[in-house]
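Today's session is about reading a structure prediction critically. Students often jump straight to the picture, but the first step is always the sequence itself: look for stretches that repeat, for charged clusters, for runs of hydrophobic residues. Only then move on to the predicted structure, which in these notes is written as discrete structure tokens rather than atom positions. Here is the chain we will use throughout the hour.
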Amino acid sequence: QVQLVESGGGSVQAGGSLRLSCAFSGVNNDYCLAWFRQAPGKEREQIAQFNWAGETEYDKSVKGRFTISKDNAKNTLYLEMNSLKPADTAMYYCAAATTWEGIWKHCDEYDHWGQGTQVTVST
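Below is the predicted structure for this chain, in token form.
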């Protein structure tokens, strides 16, 4: 069974950095892993994805500032966050999805979630 546990959240000043971790189990190399975030009163949004082939995708709001990576030896997904802005304040979630092989192979809908870790960026 898939299990995801986030850690590493906290409070930082604008311009600072944080590294989030997601310990995973029950996830094989054919899964997609991703980071989502949700601020109060706003929709949940996908901000970074690491697919079965090690390819990464980023939402434009974080591209160039955040880096997603995976360490299979440690069974951990990371999100390195640099140049943080107050707009980055949100609950951050780790998620997992199986792959779907239609006309091309891609990540299915994310349906496994961690408990979340809070990130607060102050001015």
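Discussion point for the tutorial: The chain has a mean pLDDT of 96.
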